[in-house]
Specification:
Layout: H1 2-10, H2 20-24, E1 27-33, E2 36-41, H3 44-59, H4 72-83, H5 90-93, E3 97-100, H6 101-108, H7 118-134, E4 140-144, H8 150-163, H9 165-177, H10 180-193, H11 200-210, H12 214-217, H13 224-242, E5 248-250
Helix pairs in contact: 3-6, 3-7, 8-9, 8-11, 8-13, 9-13, 10-11, 11-13
């Protein structure tokens, strides 16, 4: 019953106004690097629901979804059918999120008003606060559970790949020079894990630089540790300089 209740919230079939303030107090926004922001939500399911629309718009593996507006119930059906599941497990399958501002705004500013739900309103409130600071500048938004852990490092690697041309150039060079067997197997693993082809290079550098998930670890790819060391050294050099030592918390004026 608990899972069914969360799905009703997801579909806005359950009125959550009675605990709205308590829920919104669990959502925090931080300015954690130059043009880099993080929404920190401890609960994984809630975090996933806030990010699902723009994240899937950005890098969904489903042609019916990527770069398109969609209804959530339709996405749930596609997701369950693709993975052969009876329940919609997106909220437990994915933990970290990262979206460049151009994709984020293209998605969120073009939703059919009839399709906007509570989670969309939360994301729109977050964007509004960031744009007060950034104006028309490009920025990057992360979705994490804490400001210091492996998940933040992985998502911050994506942010630097987008905001720092020098970092991107050096990471792409490492990928072009990477052991061909390592690169081929990593690309396959990333796709098999559920990522779209157009984010392969970005995901490659993030996974190689900040550690591999369980799905990749079991592959036992020869020479992968040698290659990972190169990515990790470069990541650490930039990460130490670009993550703010004291991220600034930004008050969100939720319009829900």
């Amino acid at each position: 019953m608990k899972k069914l209740k969360s799905y009703k919230i997801f579909l806005e079939e359950l009125n959550i106004s009675y605990n709205k303030d308590i829920y919104l107090n669990t959502i925090n926004l931080y300015h954690c690097g130059d043009h880099i922001y993080a929404v920190v939500i401890n609960d994984q399911h809630s975090r996933a629901m806030v990010f699902i629309r723009p994240q899937e718009f950005y890098e969904s593996i489903f042609d019916e979804i990527v770069h398109k507006q969609f209804k959530f119930n339709r996405y749930m059906d596609i997701y369950k059918q693709h993975y052969g599941k009876q329940e919609f497990t997106y909220g437990s399958d994915w933990s970290g999120f990262n979206i460049p501002s151009n994709i984020l705004e293209e998605c969120m500013f073009n939703i059919d008003p009839e399709d906007i739900n509570t989670y969309d309103k939360i994301m729109l409130s977050v964007i509004k606060e960031i744009k007060k600071i950034e104006g028309d500048n490009k920025y990057y938004l992360l979705g994490v559970d804490k400001l210091k852990n492996d998940l933040l490092e992985h998502e911050f690697a994506h942010a630097m790949y987008f905001t720092l041309p020098d970092y991107k150039s050096k990471m792409d060079k490492l990928t072009s020079e990477c052991d061909e067997n390592v690169k081929r197997k990593m690309f396959k693993s990333i796709v098999d894990y559920g990522y779209a082809d157009h984010v392969l290079s970005d995901e490659m550098q993030a996974y190689m630089a900040t550690g591999l998930g369980y799905e990749q670890e079991i592959l036992d790819i020869p020479n992968i540790e040698i290659e990972m060391k190169k990515y990790n050294n470069l990541f650490n050099e930039y990460y130490s300089k670009n993550l703010y030592k004291s991220p600034q918390k930004i008050k969100i004026n939720f319009e829900i």
